[in-house]
Amino acid sequence: MSDIRPAPAFGGESLLFLTDEQLRQGIEAMFFAYRGFTADPDRILAQMAYGRAHHRAIHFINRAPGTTVNNLLAILGVTKQSLNRVLRTLIEDGMVESRVGTVDKRERHLFLTDKGRALEAKLSDAQRARMRAAYKEAGPEAVAGFRKVLEAMMDADMRRAYTKLRDTTS
Amino acid sequence: MSDIRPAPAFGGESLLFLTDEQLRQGIEAMFFAYRGFTADPDRILAQMAYGRAHHRAIHFINRAPGTTVNNLLAILGVTKQSLNRVLRTLIEDGMVESRVGTVDKRERHLFLTDKGRALEAKLSDAQRARMRAAYKEAGPEAVAGFRKVLEAMMDADMRRAYTKLRDTTS
DNA sequence: AGTTTATGTCAGCGTTGTTGACATTCCAAG
DNA sequence: CTTGGAATGTCAACAACGCTGACATAAACT
Fold it and tell me: Which residues of A touch B130 (CB under 8 A)?
C-alpha cells in the first residue's frame, strides 16, 4: 500500500482514519495485539493447569483485596457459576482465601495468600514486560492515543468499572 | 487521581508512561476494551449457535478468498483440529465452500458463499460501528498512537501476518 | 516402488463460558 | 416475631473451543 491517495474532497481535516479500510486495519490490529498481550501469562499458566480466567481473578483480587464474589463478577463480566469454579480451585490450591463477611454473612471476602501474591507478581511481571517494551517502542504520545481509543471502545459499564479502578491508588 | 506529581528527577522527557502504575492501567484498559470490541458481534453470533471462532474464520476467509486451511491456521494461531470443527459447521450450514486444490489435491481452498458474505457483512458492520465511534471520539492522532502501540505489542510472527494483510488492497 | 513429508479429518479431553436448581442469610411487611 | 421475598453464593450439567493423538490421502524425495 505505497500509493498515496488524495485527501477527500470534503471534511477538510482528513477523515481518512474513518474509512472502512482503516477501521478494518484497526480491527485486525486489535485481534493480533490481544494475542500478544495474553501470550506471556498464558505460557506460565499452562504449566500449572490454570487458564486465563484464573489470571483475571487473581489480578482483580490483588487490585481490590477483600472484594466480594459479587463485586468481582461485575468486573469480570462472567456468570457467578463460571467464576465459582475458578475460585474453588484457587482456594483449594491455597492461592486465595475466602472469609465470611462480618456484617453480612452471605458475602465472601476474597484475599490473596502469600503464595497467591507470588503468582500474581510472576504473571504481571511477564505482562508488564511486554507492555513496557511496546510503550517504549511507540513513545509517550502514541501511548496517550492508545489509552484514549481503548477507553472510547469500552461499554459504558466497563468504562465505569475501569475508571473506578484506575483512580484507586491501591 | 487528581493529585499532580512532580516530574521524575532524571530521564528528562518524562518517563511517567513507563511506570508500573501506568502499565497496569494500560493492561486493564486492554482487558475492558477487548470486551467491548467483541461484544456486538458476539450478540449476533449467539443467536445462531456460533461463537467467536466462527467470526474469525469468516473474517479472514473474506479477506483472503481461496486461502487454504493451513494458511488460515497460521493466521488464526490455533490448531488445525480446532479450526476444523468450526469450518465443518460453517460448510454444513452453507456459509463456506471448500474446493479441492487443482495443483495440489491435498489442499482445500476456502470461499464464502453469498450467505456467508451476508453474515460477514452483518458482523463486521456491527464491529466497525463500534470502532468508528471510538475513533471519532478519540480523534486521528489518538488513532495513530493506538495503532502504533498495538503493532508494537504483537509477536513477530503476528506482526508479519498483520502487515501482510494490511498491505493487501483486497 | 518405497519412505518421508504435508495437508486435512476424526475422536476424545480440559478450560471456561452458559442456564437451572438450591441453601443460606438478610430484611421488610404483617 | 414470623413469614415471604430478595440477595449472595454453591453445586450440577451442558456447549463452545482450545488442546493432543491417531489416521487417511496426496505429494515429494531417494
Answer: 153
Predicted confidence at residue B2, as pLDDT, reads 44
Cβ-nearest to A142 among B31, B134, B148: B148
Q: How far apart are CA A97 and CA B162, in angstroms?
A: 42
Within the 103-162 window of chain A, which residues sit less than 8 Å (CB to CB) from chain B? 124, 127-128, 130-155, 158-159, 161-162
* Out of A53-57, B15-19, B113-117, least confident range: B15-19
ipTM, 2 decimals?
A: 0.89
Give the three cell numbers for residue B96: 463456506
Positions in chain C where some atom is under 7 Å from a protein CB: 6-12, 14-21, 24-27
Residue B170's pLDDT is 58
β-pairing verdict for A108-112 and A67-68: antiparallel
Instruction: Please answer yes or no on whether B142 and A151 come within 8 Å at the CB atom.
Output: no
Q: How far is CA B44 from the centre of its chain?
A: 17
What is residue A107's three-state secondary structure?
coil
Q: SS3 of B96, please?
A: strand
**Among A161, A169, A151, A167, which Cα is nearest to A72's?**
A161
State the cell numbers at A29: 490490529
Residue holding cell 456459509? Answer: B95
Q: Which of B4, B31, B167 to mutate: most A Cβ within 10 Å? A: B31
Q: Which domains does chain A have, with CATH numbers?
A: 23-138 (1.10.10.10)
Query: A42: which chain B residues are within 8 Å (Cβ-Cβ)?
Result: none
* Cβ atoms within 10 Å, residue B35: 16
How far apart are alpha carbons B43 and A130 in whole angstroms?
31
Residue A132 CA: distances (Å) to CA of A61, A128, B96, B150: 23, 6, 41, 12
